[in-house]
Amino acid sequence: MSGSTGDASPGVRRRMPYARRREQLLQVALAEFGRRGYHLTQMEHVAAAAQVSKALLYQHFASKEELFVEVTEAIVAELTGRLNAAVLAEHDSREGIRAMIRVLFDYATAEPDAWALVIRHLDKPEVGPELRELRDRLGTAFADLLLRRRRADPKLSPAALAVNEHRARLLVPLMYGSMLSMVSWWLEHPDTPRERAEQMAVEFIWLGLDRLRTGERLPKG
Asked: Helix, strand, coil shares of the chain as percentages rounded to 5?
């Protein structure tokens, strides 16, 4: 079937199927949100990059907010699915952390636009709940890794476990913050071997945690 597509360019061409057009618009929007950020990206930017009219874009998405929600929901589903699968495959806490770091490096390498969007917006609650959900899922995964051995210890009292749980929650933002920062730094310094960057991230997190677990603390003051 031929007819006007609503594309910005003039002329008559075969209309792109609805589902494929929608997927194309989501991919273009992902790139624009990753490059400009949510607040600076306008619907006209997405339409121009996709080479369609704003009217056609609004046929698929009623607002920029709706478009951003769909983009971020896809990111959250994909990344958390990969992280969950990697962690569940490991029974050792250290190897679980190593697996999570590997997934983050893989994802950032394969999906640079999605990674840029996550880094820009993860700690900005005003852009919607979807990325907060990603942050919360990351935190839960990290806490579970920290507590895996403790929860399996039959000698640990409920009170002691509660103390450990509280401590783990305090450590979570430090852990995922350092991992995300390391991945982003490595993307900007590709001359550094990935294996070295991954190993440094594992050692930074694991050795620091190990010293805390043994009770080592800095003196106050």
From this structure: 75, 5, 25
How far apart (Å, rounded) are the C-alpha atoms in residues 1 and 33? 33
The contacts of residue 209 (CB under 8 Å, 6+ apart) are: 146, 171
Q: DSSP assignment, residue 218?
A: P
Residues written for the chain: 221
Q: Which amino acid is at 6?
A: G
Chain-centroid distance of CA 196 in Å reads 22
What's the CA gap between 52 and 46, in Å, rounded? 9
Give the number of other CB atoms < 10 A from CB of residue 103.
19
Give the pLDDT of the chain (221 residues) as one tens digit per residue: 334 444 544 444 457 898 999 999 999 999 999 999 999 999 999 999 999 999 999 999 999 999 999 999 999 899 988 988 988 888 788 888 899 899 999 999 999 999 999 999 988 867 778 888 788 877 777 777 766 666 666 777 877 767 667 777 777 788 878 889 999 999 999 999 999 999 999 888 888 766 666 666 677 75
CA distance 121 to 206: 27
Q: Is 10 helix (H, G, I), strand (E, B) or coil?
A: coil
* pTM to 2 decimal places: 0.79
Nearest to 180 by CA among 157, 158, 205: 205
